[in-house]
Amino acid sequence: MSADASNAPVVYVALLRDLVNSFELDIAFLRHTDFENRTTVLIAEWPPRTNVAHPDPLHTVPFDGADPIFAAAESLDSVLTVCVDGGIADYRTRVESASGFVPQSLVAVPLIAGAATVEVLGFGKLAGRDWTEDEFNALRAIAALTTQVHTRVAAEERFRYSATHDEQTGLVNRGALLDYLRGRLADHTSGPVAILFLDLGRFEALSNFLGHLAGDEYIAAAARALTRDVGATALIARLGGDEFVLVLHGPSNAHHAHLTARTALDAIRLLDVPGLDRSRRATVGISIAHPGRVAADEALQRADQAALIAKVNGDNDVVQFTDSVQRQSELRSDIEIHLRTAIRNDSLVLYFQPEIDLITKRITAVEALVRWQHPHRGLLPPAAFIPVAEATNLAGELGSWVLEQSLRTLGEWATSLPDLDISMRVNVSPAQLVGAGFVDEVEKVLRRHSIEGSSLWLEITEVAVVRDIEHTRRTLAGLRRLGVRIAIDDFGTGFSSLSHLKALPVDALKIDRAFVADLGFAGGDLAIVDSVIGLAASFGLDVIAEGVETLDAANTLIDRGCTRAQGYLMSRPVSAVDALALLRVGTIDI
Ligand code: C2E
Ligand code: CA
Ligand code: CA
């Protein structure tokens, strides 16, 4: 009979039955060694017992504290014959209570794989029996054959496990998830089926920051927390990276899905990851799929698209797939397709937003902010395409375009206004900063437009800084040699980078507009703004506030000692022509 994982139990019973018949025995059994729990487990027997007690005293027997016969099974390395007499009381009691009789004569043959006793084949005879050497030889041969079956079955089970499970977390993998979803979404199955796509967010930056081992530990901890809190409600799969998928058991509606999404997000939020603070933002995309109407991969993709929109929009952690999500996803793919051409045929435009000294009202700098004049979709804000550029390796090309155009524009302004004394602030993507030859590129562009390095500020985010700290340090040092200065943008939203501030040649911090926005209102983010200003002072850095929309906010900033500011109160970002007009005046009254 050919044996594999699926029919192994049947094969074992058939084997035991044949052995009982041909050796004229009363019973035969096969026991398996569970090394992890140090127990021996009954996996087949002949003849089958009736009226077996629950729990069956013969089923799982721990080696520790077992009678000498069961204990011997742990490291049996040759055939053992036992004449069961009154001396082995524990053994007799256990066997008698489970089967109603005790064999007088017992033979145990080990099945050895590698150096371990993986199984034990046992035979018993009610009355005493003498065994011949030929019989022993036959039993050894049978044991060797059974070992082969065992090894094959175990390998098959391991293979099946690793083909359907994620190695790192032990959760179901993508293939097994899709199989499961195909079952749940088959025609005439009861539904709907709620699928939740969970993205941990900033995982890449995190593992670069904390090291890959810590990143792996974070994923494992997330998997454990999800299993603990939603494991009873949903099947949990890991797709790789920081992506998990939950499929709610049984028919579920959007309400169930949202509740589970909240529970899952709470489980993630409560994870204690040293060094990681408010920047951690997990998102969930929900898709409610109706059996017979949508294919498994399509349903999963919808949840993925919704999660992506949640991530890009930034104002909601949980987004359910709708027609509007569909349209936004289409826009994203459209952008992906057309962005490269847009960069090359100059469909991008730069807007410029002045920054002023709140005391003198003089314009001290302008920030170059990119937009895309899209042929059918109008003027697109950077949020609509910068994330796409970063996800598709276009960030470098886009960044080069911005650097070139912004410095050329500054050169043109300087020609019109010979006394112009302002800096150009240019945003830099993480990908540009880590790209080879960035310093050379900046040097060439400066020279091409006859601009001093000291007239250029580059704004980088904390995420960029932590990606590869040593490389970043070298790049920033190279830029400093050119006289170019560096500001950390959106300060306060990222990783706690105090140690980086000390290690890196940085010149200024820009207080994120989220903190500036509610300045002037009672209880606002004054504490954060104060601490950024204090931090800048103690490191000898400049500090600039962005997003100043009200006079109250401006006055609060002046009170706190921050006098450089940018925001709608002074001016929105404007075209190069309008910016030149502002620069001609030179000051902006507020
Ligand atoms: P950011 O560097 O923090 O730029 C400031 C953003 O705040 C700009 O949005 C600006 O229009 C907006 N803003 C300025 N003052 C106010 C205000 O008073 N209130 C409010 N609510 N908003 C204000 P924008 O132009 O949409 O740019 C968004 C982000 O896109 C930028 O944030 C920057 O991270 C990125 N970005 C823009 N241009 C570029 C670029 O050329 N390269 C790269 N890598 N990123 C860019
Ligand atoms: Ca900026
Ligand atoms: Ca900013």
Automatic annotation (TrEMBL):
Listed CDD domains: EAL, GGDEF
GGDEF domain sequence ranges: 191-323
Gene3D superfamilies in UniProt: 3.30.70.270, EAL domain (3.20.20.450)
Domain EAL: 332-587
InterPro entries given in the database record: Biofilm_reg_signaling, EAL_dom, EAL_sf, GGDEF_dom, Nucleotide_cyclase, Rev_trsase/Diguanyl_cyclase
Protein name: Bifunctional diguanylate cyclase/phosphodiesterase
